[in-house]
Amino acid sequence: LALCTLAVELGVSAVPDLGPLLAQLVAPLVAAGMVYAAAATDRGGGASLRYAIAVFAAPAGAIAAIVAANLVTFAGEALAAWWIADVNLLAPGDGADFSKAAIVGMVAMSVLASLPVAFVPFHVLLERAPAGAAFRASWDAFALNTLPLLAYAAAALVLVAFGAATMGLGLLLALPLLATAGYSAWKDVFGVRDTPA
User: Fold this and answer.
1) pTM over 0.85
2) Is 3 inside any structural domain?
């Protein structure tokens, strides 16, 4: 599933002009398949490639919520890219060359921006919560659990940095680990015992 996510992200990003924006709309939906995979594994099943497209059958509100949550995260990353490296991520151009410091800054901002919306995919996909309720619950969970979520963010930063340092290959390991950790955090924070089928 991580490979599918990366392939979609890179493939769609390569589309001239609109590719970077389209990637932010499509790739998070493929990545959300890891939410289904984590839940299936928790129920004693296994991950399946069919989860990579399962989200596209979710209700429109769930799809919109996942895309909106991703755009919040992308906004943090894009702001960091503009601020640190003077690069527009929606039109990076061939000359975009990011220093290691810029990459770390972008990833850090992206991870921090994701924290208030981190639980949105779990709510809309597994609990079938309405989008507004999912965003409120995720924000409230962030506000009440800021320190543990910052520790999660630090671990996520290390995992993503490892992924970047290995030319992206480490992301094949990091993405499922982050999805599983997010799933476990969602269950813990919201007191979920049995995952909805």
Assistant:
1) yes
2) no
